[in-house]
Amino acid sequence: MSKSILVTGGTKGIGKAILERFGKEGFDLITCARNEKDLKSLHAELSEKFSDCSVTSIRADLSKKEEVLSFAEQVKAKGIPDVLVNNTGVFLPGAIHDEPEGNFELMMNTNLYSAYYLIRAFSKDMIERKAGYIFSIGSIAGLTAYPNGGSYAISKWAMLGMTKCLREELKPYNVKVTSILPGATYTASWAGVDIPEERFMKAEDVAESVWAAYNLSPQSVVEEITIRPQLGDL
Fold first, then answer.
1. How far apart, in whole angstroms, are the C-alpha atoms of residue 207 and residue 84?
2. What EC number is given for this enzyme (predicted)?
3. Helices (DSSP H) in 130-234: which residue ranges?
């Protein structure tokens, strides 16, 4: 029976790279996104590229609790994924003291709460079957304070803390938990910036790190992976 991976926010960047990496290994693929057009395009691309895999794509805005829970129920109706990658996120620059009203709520809902609700939706079944893997895609912003990081940094620091707690809670049940903390990765988020592409990390490198961590023996787990551009943070 094929194993399955659920990657939130899979239409671009790191999320898409992870789907493709696991698709190469025969995993059934599950993802979601807000943009219906992008989601349909991804579904067609993955279905053609990995014709032996089942591809499930569901439109959902994970900044809204009711849509997160609905998405989880639709996935659970088809079975509990073997791997959950909490990847969906949004970045809006701004300082804590003067960023636009609503930035905090939007980024906490999208970057943190969506992961919290999905973990609660799937972890109990992983505990019962004593198998599963949960990855949280955080950020260097969850390790290093920097100006104009604002609510994004807050959400990523909180994500790291939540993932560390989850690791301690699930270790007795053979459910692995890993924090992935990438630096500047060349994705659509950086479109239009006047920085050479070679200065960024590749999304595929993050995906390879996820795949490598997944493949350790049952006796070992990578708790945290920090990945930076070779020349350092931007």
1. 14
2. 1.-.-.-
3. 150-170, 203-214
CB 181 within 8 A of CB 136: no
DSSP type of residue 141: G
φ and ψ at residue 195, rounded to 5 degrees: -135, 130
What are 30's strand-pairing partners? Answer: 6, 56
Distance CA 89, CA 156 (A): 10
Reported as a single tens digit per residue, the pLDDT across 146-182 is 888 999 999 999 999 999 999 999 999 999 999 999 9
Architecture in CATH for domain 4-227: 3-Layer(aba) Sandwich (3.40)
Q: What is the pLDDT of residues 194-210, one digit of tens each?
A: 898 889 999 999 999 99
- Residue 74 to residues 21, 48, 60, 128, Cα–Cα distance (Å): 24, 23, 11, 20
**In 3D, which of 113, 137, 111 has the Cα closest to residue 19?**
137
Rounded CA gap, 126 and 105, in Å?
30
Angle at CA of residue 217, ends 212 and 220, nearest 5°: 90
pTM value surpassing 0.85: yes
Spatial neighbors of 79 by CB under 8 A, at least 6 apart, are: 4
